[in-house]
Amino acid sequence: MKLKRGAWIAPALAVIGGSLLVEAVWRGTAWTLLGVASGLLLGLAFRWSRHDTLSDTDAFDLPHTLDLLRRAHDARVGWAIGLAQGPVEVVGDAVQEEQGAEARRRGAAFVQLASVDGRVHVAHEIEGTYVATGDFPYGTALLLSGRDADQRRVTAAVNDLRRLIDTMRHAEQHATPGQGQLVARQLALGVAGAQTLAGIARAGAELAQQLGQRGAAVVIRSVRERDAIHIIAVSTAADKRLTGRRLDPEAPVARAIQGGIPLVTTGAEDVFGPGMPERRRHERGGAVYPLLDGRSVIGALVLVGQRAPAGDRIASLVAELGPRLAAAKAVHDAEQRAVLDPLTGLRNRGEFERVLAGYRAREQTLPASLIYVDLDHFKRLNDTLGHPAGDAALKHIARVLEEAMREGDLVARIGGEEFAVWLPHAQLGEAWEVAERIRDSVANTTWHWSGTAYPLTTSCGVASYPEPIAELLNLPAAADAALYRAKELGRNRVEKAARSY
Q1: Which uninterrupted H or E stretch holds 11?
Q2: How many whole angstroms separate alpha carbon 108 and alpha carbon 88?
Q3: 183 and 168 in one domain?
Q4: What DSSP letter does each residue of 374-419 carry, written as one string?
Q5: Claim to verify: residue 492 and residue 421 sit in the same structural domain
Q6: Which pLDDT does position 190 carry in this prediction?
Q7: Which pLDDT tens digit goes with each residue over 380-399?
């Protein structure tokens, strides 16, 4: 039978790949194995580029192809994600169960990260060299043997991993799509260019609105506190005032996340719990779908308003959105941990000093103020009630400080029981009012420990530039001296810095 013009190229490449396989087995060389994989990938890619569809006999065997790449590059493990068949992992015989479990977990995290940000990730670790790359929603990775793989070897691996991603994309484009694949493609289009947690969540909420024909929101567990849940994105049909709100632990959404099961409310109880903005377009009821990354619940997709049939499309979106958000959340959480105090969730000292240094470099002509806040008698509290009580008291102070802040202010825990409040563009009078508000709020807000109320107070030192402090660089020392004077004069008071600084 006569072949169509050009139709011989794909079979020829496959034959070349097959013949190289014979030589690979005989010689046992990695580079010949690489030729096998390349021949198979090029053959499939050429066939799909001619707009042919896949038959059962042409189906892309991802595990086999990935394993060929693993062997060709002398890699211990290979990973690929993004196809409808689910994540694929191929492991060499030399990987021992007890030694390889952590390596496999880390590799899976690398490939998830690469699938979201589209970058090349290389990490030289004791178990080998991780190489990962991606193009959302696809990701591929290898764990090369040896922790010091050279640049030539890494580059070769990256190039082949990228070719594998191209092949995976062609495979899905030319296969007959199912409902789940259609939703996955819609989500991929929606998040194109979005690399942040909020951006991906917003794309998921908009697609949920399109599929469910009602407003949608995405809520996520916070890095700052284990049980804290925040709304991070809403669709255009939902109330924008919901964005950024922290939910009550007893809210239906929180209960669904804690239990890991879907939940529906009819409106008698607000799906987001108490304390929400009044009459969010009269939408109180809703359906909550937990978002999972494997077995871990990371948040939920919420469809607000009266229940409407959503069908399998919402289920497919939930299955796709969970892992994507988890990968983005891992990046977001790592960035947050670098700048946040782990106990209170406030900015840490390093981030506080970085912000001040940046202000000094940019804004020499504009006013600014600094408040140092110290929890009075903290050592006595620790000695009397124990360190867990001390930690709880510090968290309480942190929440009071956050509530007292204006937009654009920064509050940080800079050590022990000491906090700093940075007020850019604020003069002394404004800063004094903020400090008094902090002191008064702490003194008049009841703090309980083990069912008993305990009084807490704070002392504050205020320093402002350029009056009375003539140099920005001297603000921290001036605020510290004012704080010391407040404690010396009896505590539970605010003192301002002297002109001598």
Answers
A1: helix 9-27
A2: 10
A3: no
A4: EETTHHHHHHHH-HHHHHHHHHHHHHHHHHHPPTT-EEEEEETTEE
A5: yes
A6: 63
A7: 999 999 999 999 999 999 99
Specify which residues 301 forms β-bridges with.
Answer: 218, 289
Q: Are 76 and 93 in contact (CB under 8 A)?
A: no
Contacts of 171 by beta carbon, 8 Å cutoff, 6+ apart:
44, 48, 54, 60, 62, 83
- DSSP conformation class of 442: H
Q: Which domain holds residue 452?
A: 349-496
CA–CA dist 54, 56 (Å, integer): 7
Q: What is the pLDDT of residues 480-490, one digit of tens each?
A: 999 999 999 99
- 13: pLDDT strictly greater than 70: no
List C-alpha distances in Å: 484 to 81, 243, 489, 493. 57, 40, 9, 11
In whole angstroms, what is the distance from residue 332 CA to residue 410 CA? Answer: 19
Q: Bigger pLDDT: 424 or 175?
A: 424
Pairing of the two strands 410-415 and 368-375: unpaired
CATH for 191: 3.30.450.40
Give yes or no: residues 27 and 150 share one domain: yes
Q: How many domains does the chain have?
A: 3
Residue 492 DSSP label: S
Q: Are residues 139 and 13 in the same domain?
A: yes
Same domain, 158 and 23: yes
Q: How confident is the model at residue 175 (pLDDT cuts 50, 70, 90)?
A: low
Whether 23 has a pLDDT exceeding 50, the answer reads no
* Residue 59 CB neighbours (<10 A): 12
What stretch of H or E contains 496? strand 494-496
Question: Final residue of a domain: which of 173, 204, 230?
Answer: 173
210, 85: one domain: no
- Neighbour-count burial for 409-426, b at 16+ CB within 10 Å, e otherwise: bbbbbbeebbbbbbbbeb
Whether residue 267 is found in the same domain as residue 318: yes
- Which amino acid, one-letter code, is at 122? V
CATH assignment at residue 48: 3.30.450
Query: What distance separates the 2 farthest-apart alpha carbons in the chain?
Result: 102
Domain boundary residue, one of 173, 196, 230 = 173
Residue 308 banded pLDDT, cuts 50, 70, 90: low
Q: Judge if 329 and 353 occupy the same domain.
A: no
Q: What are phi and psi of 36, to 5 degrees?
A: -60, -55
Is 52 part of any domain?
yes
